[in-house]
Design goal:
Elements (H helix, E strand, L loop, with lengths): L1 H13 L1 H21 L14 H12 L9 E7 L9 H15 L4 E5 L13 E8 L8 H16 L3 E6 L9 H19 L2 H29 L3 H31 L4 H28 L7 H32 L11 H4 L12 H11 L1 H16 L7 E2 L11 H13 L7 E6 L6 H13 L4 E4 L3 E2 L5 E8 L6 H21 L2 E5 L1 H35 L3 H26 L15 E2 L2 H29 L4 H28 L7 H33 L8 H6 L15 H13 L1
Parallel strand pairs: 5-11
Antiparallel strand pairs: 1-3, 1-4, 2-3, 6-9, 6-10, 7-9, 8-9
Helix pairs in contact: 1-2, 1-9, 1-10, 1-23, 2-7, 2-10, 4-5, 6-7, 6-8, 6-20, 7-8, 7-10, 8-9, 8-10, 8-19, 8-20, 9-10, 9-17, 9-19, 12-20, 12-21, 13-18, 13-21, 15-16, 17-18, 17-19, 18-19, 18-21, 19-20, 19-21, 20-21
């Protein structure tokens, strides 16, 4: 591996014009493809295998044109102080709004509050239900604008009007967050390299890689049903790893220059050593992202595969375009330890013999490994304690900021009709196999009325064939509560008994039931996903480090940091600790996608830091250093770069904390704190402490396994005998190939 990449690096350095042309051509082709591709709407959303999805599919068959999974909007009206919604003027304003709403091309139906019994008992609040032909993720902007304009007309008539439901669902904008992350990354890179030119290379290559990946996703969006969230995840992950990978190769190049190597040879050795770590780090990220397919949520699978493709592009760019750019830069890139003329006049450091901070820290840890290990484990364990009370759910309008119309509509409906009115359950009764469908419908309604936490059960509404009916159930508790979830399970349990008595099938669906099913599906998939990702990465790291204990330590350290990060998320977003500082207006269940999403993203980044830091230690150990000294050597060369990479990632993710969307805010905080725990406590403290305690045993590998494993030479042992002449011959071999 190292020898092949060494030859590739030299080839890219010498043939830099050709390499740069290839990447510019790919970026141009991807851009042209994105610009000429047909516009794609947001991806369709389905959850195969869940009861809620089965009910939606059944409704599509038995109620043609009903658009069971179509978007809904509730336009909520409140009368001025001292008036009622039944007053003539207010009634006229509402009916005018209903008429406006009914004229939309994507509108399936609009329910008049006065004919649909949608006025509160005290007469002050009413609502009009709007049903659309397409889902909220597919709804055109023109339909959303028409909805807002109709509401504004009613406001102009003197009413308080707010809009709830999923019709106004919008993908959060993240452009400003990415700009903040790039700005912080630029500052950190300049400080790390002491050169604007060297700092610019990781940013340039990361942007090119993300540009190619996102453009390709855009070009294929219509054909593959990819939504805007797919490109958002791809750009976030691609930007993160793209900067990381280029950062490590440029840093190693400067270190090779400091050892007196010629620039072409230094570029080859940087790609052969740090590039080997990049390849395997990239593989762990790809495994983590592609592994999201085990959840069996099509949208999540597509997001993971698209992001994995962007990561693969980042790896290829780091291995080829970085050495090409180094060739263009020539002597303007200074060896490690020298500052550029721009920042320091090219003078040598004042104290060339003084150990750097990474060396001093590693020496301290090696002297006191037990104390550092205990302090790190106990600290992360304490942070993980709140995770024991983790409650999962999906956000609804009740978790929105109070400044949004969705949240105000939610509060008005709770005030007028009770908290459960915001999350009605739709019961679908399939009586095709029943001898008496009408009796079955009546039986279902009666059984549900007798359940705890039920406020209202509407009469069954059968289809034309009379073999299927829908029943609406309004709970007494709010949609995201555990009580409502218990009611859904209770109805399903009753449905099993009813099926045996009447021969009919009872299914529970609606947005609330769908959220519950999605949460359960994600929860059930977490352990298999962890086993798959950690297991495959464990095998991969055995090949990289030729050790059993080092990969085991890496996996256990990752689990510790993820649990600590989940504990922090629970403390802030569920318990409300520091909620004012984070601008969290409403506490509640943690987003159900959060644990599995955090595992996937953080695992990839954690293994990046593990591979880059520990391969340097492995390299020093293989080249004859004692185990404790190898730890110090690894930190001397790698700690500064890993620290810079972690700070950049934290800055990128922290930019999302300022979002008004609670889901985006939670993801940003969770990923930022997870990177902090993993990089600075696990990789910088626990890892060297464990390796110091294990000594030579850390690199133990059974002889039979050593013979069975391929020798990928990540530490670059094969490069010790590699001469520049060999590199030129290797270049000719690659060109011929």
């Amino acid at each position: 591996m190292a020898t092949f990449l060494y030859k590739l690096g030299r080839l890219a350095f010498r043939r830099r014009h050709f390499v740069a042309l290839i990447w510019v051509a790919l970026l141009t082709l991807a851009g042209v493809g994105a610009a000429s591709a047909p516009a794609a709407g947001n991806t369709s959303f389905s959850i195969p295998g869940t009861e809620a999805q089965k009910a939606f599919d059944l409704l599509e068959q038995r109620f043609p044109g009903m658009s069971a999974d179509g978007a809904t909007a509730r336009v909520v009206f409140k009368a001025p102080q001292g008036e009622k919604m039944t007053d003539a003027a207010n009634k006229a304003a509402v009916r005018k709004t209903v008429k406006e709403l009914a004229g939309g091309s994507e509108v399936a139906s609009v329910a008049d509050p006065y004919t649909g019994h949608a006025v509160s008992r005290n007469g002050t609040i009413a609502y009009a239900s709007v049903k659309y032909k397409v889902s909220g993720m597919e709804l055109e902007d023109s339909s959303k604008d028409a909805l807002k304009e109709a509401a504004q007309d009613a406001r102009d008539a003197g009413l308080t009007v707010e809009i709830g439901g999923d019709a106004l669902t919008a993908t959060p904008e993240t452009g400003s967050s990415e700009i903040i992350g790039l700005a912080v990354a630029a500052v950190v890179l300049v400080i790390t390299f002491g050169s604007l030119l060297a700092a610019g290379f990781p940013l340039l290559t990361a942007i090119i890689g993300v540009g190619i990946g996102v453009s390709a996703i855009t070009a294929l969006a219509s054909a593959l049903d990819l939504g805007s969230t797919t490109s958002t995840l791809a750009s976030m992950i691609g930007l993160a790893v793209g900067i990381d990978y280029a950062l490590f190769i440029v840093s190693r190049y400067r270190a090779e220059l400091a050892e007196g190597r010629e620039r072409e040879d230094a570029a080859g050795r940087a790609v052969g050593t740090a590039g080997s770590a990049v390849v395997f780090a990239g593989l762990t990220v790809v495994i983590a992202l592609v592994g999201l397919s085990v959840v069996n949520i099509p949208m999540l699978t597509k997001m993971g595969i698209a992001a994995a493709g962007t990561v693969a592009i980042a790896v290829l760019i780091a291995l080829t375009m970085i050495p090409a750019l180094l060739g263009y830069a020539g002597r303007r890139i200074k060896p490690a330890g020298e500052k550029s003329r721009l920042l320091g006049g090219g003078r040598a450091p004042k104290n060339p013999g003084r150990p750097n901070m990474g060396t001093r820290w590693a020496s301290f840890v090696v002297r006191r490994p037990v104390a550092v290990l205990l302090l790190g484990v106990l600290g992360l364990g304490a942070a993980a304690v709140p995770a024991a009370s983790l409650e999962l759910g999906l956000p609804d309008d009740g978790s929105q900021p109070v400044s949004t119309t969705q949240r105000r509509a939610y509060d008005l409906l709770s005030e007028g009709f009770g908290p459960g009115f915001n999350g009605p359950l739709m019961i679908v009764v399939d009586a095709k196999g029943s001898d008496d469908p009408k009796a079955a419908f009546t039986k279902v309604g009666q059984e549900i009325k007798g359940l705890k936490d039920v406020v209202t059960v509407t009469p069954a509404a059968p289809n034309k064939a009379g073999d299927t009916a829908t029943i609406t159930v309004v709970p007494n508790s709010k949609p995201s509560s555990a009580t409502t979830e218990d009611l859904v399970h209770a109805i399903r349990d009753k449905g099993t008994d009813i099926a045996q008595e009447t021969g009919s099938t009872v299914l529970v669906t609606g947005s609330t039931a769908m959220n519950i099913d999605v949460s359960q599906k994600l929860n059930d998939a977490l352990l298999p996903y962890l086993a798959l990702v950690v297991g495959l990465a464990f095998l991969l790291l055995i090949v990289v480090f030729r050790s059993v204990l080092v990969p085991l330590k890496a996996a256990l350290g990752f689990l510790l940091s993820v649990m600590a990060a989940l504990g922090a998320v629970v403390a802030v977003f569920q318990w409300g600790w520091l909620s004012g500082l984070m601008n969290v207006e409403e506490t509640g269940p943690v987003m159900s996608m959060m644990p599995i999403f955090m595992v996937g993203v953080v695992f990839g980044l954690a293994m990046d830091y593990e591979v880059f830091l520990v391969t340097r230690m492995r390299e020093a150990y293989v080249h004859g250093e004692k185990p404790s000294q190898a730890v110090v050597t690894g930190f001397r060369h790698g700690a500064r770069v890993v620290t810079a990479a972690a700070v950049i990632m934290m800055a990128v993710f922290s930019g999302f904390i300022g979002s008004s969307e609670s889901m985006v805010k939670m993801i940003g905080f969770g990923l930022a704190i997870a990177v902090f725990f993993d990089a600075f406590i696990v990789r910088m403290a626990i890892v060297p402490a464990v390796l110091a305690l294990l000594g030579s045993r850390a690199w133990w590998l059974p002889k039979w396994l050593d013979r069975a494993l391929p020798n990928v030479d990540v530490e670059g042992e094969g490069l010790r005998t590699q001469s520049p002449a060999d590199g030129r011959e290797g270049e000719r071999e690659l060109v011929r190939a």
